[in-house]
Write a structure and sequence with these properties.
The complex is a heterodimer. By secondary structure, chain A is of the alpha+beta class. Chain A has a domain of about 55 residues. Chain A contains two helices and three strands. Chain A has a three-stranded antiparallel β-sheet, with no helix packed on it. Chain A is elongated. Chain A is about 30% helix and about 20% strand. Chain B contains two helices and nine strands; from the N terminus they run ββββααβββββ. In chain B, about 40% of the residues are buried. Classes of the chains: A alpha+beta, B mainly beta. Chains A and B meet through helix 1 and helix 2 of A and strand 4, helix 1 and strand 5 of B.
C-alpha cells in the first residue's frame, strides 16, 4: 500500500481523472472529497460490504416465498395498479 | 417439509434492463430481464441474462412504502434517465411475514431508457432490511 501524508486542502491524483481531496481534518475524522468519472463508483466500505451481503441473501428467495407474498397481498387495499411501477420525477 | 405449491405465475413480457453499474456482490453482470410475476404488479423478477440462476425479487417502492421519497442525486439523470421508477430489492426466506425490503439501496430504473442502477443512498437512517409488515 502506498501511504502518503497530506494536509487539509491538499489532493491526491489517482490515474488521469480521479482526484481525492482532504477537505478537513478534525480529531480522528477526516472529510474527504472525491472527484471521479461517473463510471467509477465510490462507496463507504462498510456500507458497500453490507450491501454485498444483503444482495447475496436477496438472490436466494425461493419460489414458495414469492407465492406466499402474492397470496397474502392479493385483493388487499393499497395494492399497486396493474400498470406496474409508477413514474416519478 | 413444505407442501407442494403452485408454481409462480408464468413469465409475462420481459423488459431488458442494463445495469449501468453491476449490482454490488455480483460483478460483471449487467444484462438483466425485468418481468412481472403477478398480474397486479406487486412483484417483479430481475433475472441475469448471463446467469439465469441469479434472480432478485423486486417490488415497486410505493407498493409497501407509499411514503418512501428518498432524495436522489442529480447525477442519476445522465446515468439512467430523467424520469425514474424506484424498485426495492426484497429478501424473503419463507414468505410475507419475514420479507424485508432494502430501503437504503433501491434499484433506480429509467422509465424510458431501460437503464438502471442499484443506488446506495447517502442516508444511514434508511435500513437495508425493513420488514414489509409493521409489527
Amino acid at each position: 500500500m502506498l501511504i502518503l501524508t497530506r494536509r487539509s486542502g491538499e489532493n491526491i491524483i489517482v490515474g488521469d481523472d480521479i482526484v481525492i481531496s482532504v477537505i478537513e481534518v478534525r480529531g480522528d475524522a477526516v472529510r474527504i472529497g472525491i472527484t471521479a468519472p461517473r463510471s467509477v463508483s465510490v462507496h463507504r466500505e462498510e456500507v458497500y460490504r453490507e450491501l454485498q451481503i444483503a444482495n447475496q441473501k436477496a438472490a436466494s428467495t425461493p419460489d414458495e416465498a414469492i407465492d406466499d407474498i402474492l397470496q397474502q397481498t392479493k385483493g388487499k387495499p393499497g395494492k399497486p395498479s396493474a400498470e406496474g411501477p409508477a413514474g416519478r420525477e | 417439509m413444505s407442501a407442494m405449491l403452485a408454481p409462480v405465475a408464468p413469465v409475462k413480457q420481459s423488459r431488458h434492463i442494463t445495469m449501468v453499474e453491476p449490482i454490488p456482490g455480483f460483478p460483471g453482470l449487467r444484462d438483466f430481464d425485468l418481468t412481472a410475476i403477478d398480474d397486479e404488479g406487486v412483484l417483479f423478477s430481475l433475472r441475469s441474462a448471463d446467469d439465469p440462476a441469479l434472480r432478485f425479487i423486486l417490488t415497486p417502492a410505493g407498493t409497501f412504502f407509499p411514503d418512501y421519497r428518498p432524495e436522489l442525486p442529480s447525477s442519476l439523470e445522465t446515468q439512467v434517465g430523467e424520469t425514474v421508477d424506484l424498485l426495492l430489492v426484497l429478501t424473503v426466506e419463507r414468505g410475507l411475514a419475514d420479507a424485508t425490503a432494502n430501503l437504503r439501496a433501491p434499484v433506480v430504473l429509467g422509465s424510458g431508457t431501460d437503464r438502471a442502477v442499484q443506488l446506495v443512498l447517502d442516508d444511514d437512517a434508511l435500513p437495508m432490511r425493513q420488514p414489509l409488515l409493521t409489527r
